[in-house]
Amino acid sequence: MDVTQKDYFSDLSIVSDPHPYFDAIRALSPVWREPHYGVFMVTGAAEVTEVLTRNDGTFSSAMSVLGPIPPLPFAVNGGDISAEIEQHRGDMPWSAHITTFDGRKHAEHRSLLSPLLTYKRLKANEEYLVGLADRVLDGFIEGGKCNAASQYAHAVATFAISDLMGIPEADRWELVELLGVPPSQIEGEAVHRVGSDPLIFLKERFDGYLRERQENPCADLMSELVASRYKDGRQPDFETISNLARFMFGAGQDTTSRLVTMALRALGDDQELQARIRAEPSRIPDLLEEALRWDGPVKVVYRLATHDTHIGGTAIPAGSLVGATLSAASNDPARFADPRNFDIDREHLRDHFAFSRGAHACLGAPLARIEARVAIERILSRTSSIRISEEHHGPAGARRYRYEPTYSFRSMSDLHIEFEPVSADARKPSIIASVPS
Asked: Regarding the domain delimited by 3-434, which CATH topology (the fold level of the hierarchy) does it fall under?
């Protein structure tokens, strides 16, 4: 079958490995209209940059998470649908959250979050992150094996953002279980949790946390959020604060979890690379940047053309959905030599698209980098080797990895690893302080 005729939004073989599909459609055109939903799939690095960095209102983020499913809640008539988007915005998935906001509204809400995730605060939190990673490792390290996706990466990421935000310790394990894996977009419950507020299941809990901070503020992100003001001095209403808190919590753990899992897969699959990183722990940040480029946490983000326009010379009619394929752009051979080769020595390691670009670039990128760096450093320090479980994933050269059935995100369902723990006396001291960010 011609790979370009596969339905990107339902084909599980593309979930397992999207890169042959992205390579095939890029070879046809860096801006190619797929035949099933009419989405313009943008796979060239230059063209993805053009889509993400335009700030003239040409592209709306109103459907940024789920793309064409469900479809627009209105009929497209004419060459400018800006008014219709605003009229029907509340009918679209995720519309309560900042990821779908545009223009001034997006900038105002982002201004409430950006002061909370400063480099100084994150650096000050590193000592806690080291202890956190060690406590999580203590739960399974002596057994010599674990599901690194759920037992380590997901747990560390969820506990880390919980601590920063000030979530009570008694609630944290419950939240690890409650969040679970990303919702399926392809099978099972198909697009569950996709109303205007898919994080509604956290609302009662987080509203309670925030009201407590209003009465008794302390040194955490939720206390600062309830005291925040827009740049003109206005106070955001409680619903705005509630939505931002829940979004920050959800987004603050899933990207990091996916990154740590993918980095551990790379180390387990390449023993020579693992030996090199163990010998040169200062290269852990380079390992993480290459993991982000090679197979990043988000495959595609979607933009809606508000009026007739062009991308890289291709005409885009108003109302068209554009899929900015971050994974494809990060593997564009016009930008990255031999892109499917995992190479921590390649030039411009941070030139990938894993954290997007432009106005919607990931605010939590510094947090994800620091958390992931600590998580990898600690598991390497506590083990003498890490291997992929052949029982679960097959032998080297014929691995079987499962990914969550979503067309937007890249999330391993599980990653079973085996290792030899080292004694406390044999452990290397933490090298966190000497590793650049």
From this structure: Cytochrome p450 (1.10.630)
